[in-house]
Amino acid sequence: MAEQSVRWGILATGGIAAAFAADLVDLPDAEIVAVASRRREPAEAFAERFGVARAYGDWESLAGDPDIDVVYVATPHSAHRAAAGLCLAAGRNVLCEKPFTLNLREAEELVALAREHDRFLMEAMWMYCNPLVRRLKELVDDGAVGDVRTVQADFGLAGPFPPAHRLRDPALGGGALLDLGVYPVSFAQLLLGEPDGIAARAVLSEEGVDLQTGALLSWDSGALASVHCSIVGGTGVTASVTGTRGRIDVPAGFFHPDRFVLHRDGRDPEEFAADPADGPRTSLRHEAEEVMRALRAGEKESPLVPLEGTLAVMRTLDAVRERIGVRYPGDAATLAG
Q1: What b-and-e string marks burial along 59-86, b requiring 16 or more CB atoms within 10 Å of the CB?
Q2: Rounded distance, CA 98 to CA 188, Å?
Q3: What pLDDT is attached to residue 332?
Q4: pLDDT at res. 331
Q5: pLDDT, block means (10 residues), the chain with 337 residues
Q6: pTM of the predicted model, to two decimals?
Q7: How far apart are the C-alpha atoms of 43 and 35, rounded to whole Å?
Q8: Furthest CA-CA distance within the chain
Q9: Dihedral, 280, 227, 108, 71 alpha carbons, nearest 10
């Protein structure tokens, strides 16, 4: 028997919204019932492209649409607090793109709103929902590499991005850290939890955003994580996890891998490959399926992407920004220390 269809609203019409909509269209138990933009024209064009019945030229109409079970917020992250907050306050469940917000204060406000209105809320950290990443975490948690000692992860784009680009704009939360660095940080914290110590250095642009940032995260257990992000150099976008009895190497595109290799001391390497039935590695379907599973189960958050984990990552990102001296117009007076 087919599951009851979950009715989606999509807030924003950019590239990530289109990618998500394309994957939703392929899910038999998902239905896109409305889309909204700040202007009607892009909303109508998006609706026509994906066969969506209603197109709104303002966010409020989408938030107030009673036929919507959950809203996918796909605006630039500088608008996540406003967009997701509007939907939560109107009684909608929300899947909000990463990075969750500009800072911890905004993230805490969204979590508080979700709990006040008894709504589901999840960050769209699709990496956490990826079947192969979930398998990697299971192996690490089961002691396949022993006690984790180091995690390494990087995400760099070659650019160059002109000063007018959103990645260079402080008002849009520009820079490498929030857009790209959220992946290496989230990967490290998926395996080790919130760090006990944080050191960081960065190269800043004339506009005051980070062109590249390196951070060393430390845990009282003795584990370390080295994370790097850049918008001035294309890196391998790889990751590795090393423990007392082995290592896992994740090749290019570590946040949506098609394979990884487990090296156990004294054994031949083992390769774990993605199941072709799970679709292309770029698919966003797994996070959509997790949202729909949680909604049907009556859950207010996902065990795969728990809100406390999202807040912990935002605390780390705030602390890194405090150390490298990056401030945004939407920040609170003081970032986390």
Answers
A1: beebbebeebbbbbbbbbbbbbbebbbb
A2: 16
A3: 63
A4: 84
A5: 82 97 95 97 98 97 98 96 98 98 97 98 98 98 98 96 92 96 98 98 96 98 98 97 98 97 96 93 95 97 98 98 94 54
A6: 0.96
A7: 6
A8: 62
A9: -10
User: Residue holding tokens 């979700």?
Assistant: 114
Distance in angstroms (rounded) separating the CA atoms of residues 57 and 38:
5
Determine contact, residues 246/194, Cβ cutoff 8 Å.
Answer: no
Distance CA 100, CA 122 (A): 9
In this structure, the strands spanning 70-73 and 93-97 are parallel
- C-alpha distances in angstroms, 161 versus 99, 155, 158? 20, 16, 9
pLDDT, residue 4, reads 81
- Residue 147's SS3 state is coil
Give the span between the Cα atoms of 231 and 210, in whole angstroms.
8
Q: What token pair was written down for 323?
A: 């150390």
Q: What residues contact residue 280 under an 8 Å CB cut-off, 6+ apart?
A: none
Q: CA distances (Å), 237 to each of 81, 132, 314, in order?
A: 28, 16, 21
Q: Is the peptide bond between 160 and the residue preceding it cis, with omega within 30 degrees of 0?
A: yes
d(CA 287, CA 302): 10
Active-site amino acid positions: 98
The pLDDT value recorded for residue 101 is 97
Partners of 248 in the β-ladder: 241, 262
Residues 6+ apart with CB under 8 A from 79: none
